[in-house]
Each structure stands twice: as C-alpha cells, then as structure tokens.
Amino acid sequence: MASISDESKTDIKDGINQGMEVFIRRLQTEDIDQVVEIEREAFSPLWISTPFKRELNNQYACYLVACPDGETAQEARSESKPAMRRPLWDRLARGIDGLMGRSPELETATESVAGYVSVWFQGSEAHITEIAVRENLRGRGIGELLLIGSVRSAVKYGSNVMTLEARVSNFIAQRLYEKYGFKNVGTRKGYYSDNREDAVIMTTCPIDTEEYGRIFQGLQDNYTKRWGEIQINDSRSETGR
Ligand SMILES: CC(C)(COP(=O)(O)OP(=O)(O)OC[C@H]1O[C@@H](n2cnc3c(N)ncnc32)[C@H](O)[C@@H]1OP(=O)(O)O)[C@@H](O)C(=O)NCCC(=O)NCCS
Questions:
Q1: pLDDT at residue 165 is higher than 60
Q2: pLDDT in tens, 124-133
Q3: 208 lies in which domain range?
Q4: What is the distance between the alpha carbons of residues 151 and 176, in angstroms, rounded to a whole number?
Q5: Which whole number is the average pLDDT over 187-200?
Q6: Which of 138, 184, 219 to mutate for ligand 1's pocket (most ligand atoms within 8 Å of CB)?
Q7: Are 97 and 103 in contact (CB under 8 A)?
C-alpha cells in the first residue's frame, strides 16, 4: 500500500502522506455519496452529477476510487449512520479540530474515499472522462495513483490508446497526463459551457506496446519509491456492484 513512515509526517512537499495508506478499488454503491461530493467540489460550476448508480453496471466503463487507510475505510462503510449525514458530521468534527489546533487534513483522511476516476471504453480508445481528488488531499500522489489504475484497466481491457479533454488553463492536470505520455493533439473550441473555455485533447501513443509497457513500468517503480507500494484491485466485486 502507498504508505509513509512515521518519522516524516510533517512535510508534504517531500512526498509525505501523513501516515496515510491509499489503495484503489472499483466504485461501490456505498461510495456514491462521497464521489458525488468530490465531483461537485472539483467540477463546479459546470457540475452535472454523473449517474454513478446506473454506471456501476456499465460493462464499457471502469470507475475506480482511491481509499485512504483500508481499516478506516472499512469502518466508515460499516457505520450505521446514513452516508448523507456524514458530511455534516465531518464539518462539525473539522470545526472542533480547528479549535483544538488539529489538522483538518488528517480528519479528512479518515473518510473512505479520497478521489475517483472514470474511464469509458469506446472502440479501441479508453477515454478518461473524469478524475478528481478531494481538494485538501491533493499533491500527495493520489491523482497519480488513480491515473496508474486507469492505465492498467485500459491495458487489461485491450484498449490501444487513452484520450481525454482538459481545460486549457488546467496546467496541473495536464502535467499529470504528460507525465504518463499524453500529448496535446488538438483543441475543442469553446468546449466548456460556463466560460466557453477551450479544451485541449490529449492522447497517448499506443499503450499496448512493449515500449509503453517499459515506460509505464518505470513510472510505477518511481511512484513506489516515492509513495510506497501500489495497491490496485480493479476487478468487479462478486455482487456485480
Ligand atoms: C488533477 C488532480 C486529479 C491531480 O491529483 P493530485 O492527487 O493532486 O496529484 P498528485 O499529487 O498525484 O500529482 C501527480 C502529478 O500531477 C502534477 N501536479 C500535481 N499537483 C501539481 C501542482 N500543484 N503544480 C503542478 N503540477 C502538479 C504533477 O505532474 C505531479 O507529478 P510530480 O509530483 O511528479 O510533479 C487534482 O488536482 C484534482 O482533483 N483537480 C480538480 C479536478 C480536475 O481538474 N480534474 C482533471 C480534469 S481534466
């Protein structure tokens, strides 16, 4: 699991995850409220909720979530209180933590979903439609782990290339994609309806080649050195959720 030793819990810039362990698995029904919350936070004002419940049965798509700390996630999922009430509880808990001088980021780390990615398989292409990480957990390798999970699932599905659109102003996302071999191949004029911003179209070279396999392996090795073991289970659960 991606985890960081106790000695270095204070410095996020040097690759410190504040003791968080993160793993990737398929989206499940219980995650949906949290994923909608992350989606709204990341994509407002253009936010239109994805019908995640319906999408769970889509054989031509893969929805992955990043979960910090497996045990805590398990506890959160088995809580008896309705998931819809959790954000209010979290807000109250974070307010109390603020008063007591504790880090709200650590509090958020006890939530069970830190981010998600959705990939649609269209012909030979795997299209990343959304990727997002909770705002206060960004910069800790979670987005990269989600991207690794989506590349792995595309390779497993038999896709030849991966593609996506990003706002021209979204340099952070573009840097992440470039790191994994996505290149700017064109523009969609006025693609985003809130401010008529253009989208850059980014596409990988063929991912089903030995060459990309080697590059991808090198990137994953670097990730492991920096953040800890990569733990991804992209199989559908037995209940088919
Ligand atoms: C894009 C996003 C998913 C990245 O997630 P993250 O967990 O913060 O990213 P990571 O910590 O894994 O960083 C991975 C890479 O992203 C890029 N990156 C991340 N934060 C960055 C920053 N502040 N400045 C520049 N590049 C950055 C870097 O290439 C980084 O690799 P490096 O650390 O080797 O330089 C996150 O910023 C997010 O949720 N944004 C809002 C939603 C969004 O814009 N989604 C993309 C739509 S196209």
A1: yes
A2: 999 999 999 9
A3: 3-74+114-238
A4: 13
A5: 96
A6: 138
A7: yes
